Amino acid sequence: MTNAKRAAQDTEAKRKFREILERKNQRAKEGEAHQDFAPNIHESHGPAGHKRTFRRKTG
Hints:
Blueprint: H1 3-29
């Protein structure tokens, strides 16, 4: 295969990939209506509200 033919195929593949990616991104942007709201769960992985106490077992 010649270099010119290979380069033409590469540019054609890149063009097709860009078109597909643009369509995918366009579909993803359609569902952005609810991104203004904050999530309902706040600080789910943060520190506990009280300090833990550890007691040594006896016996």
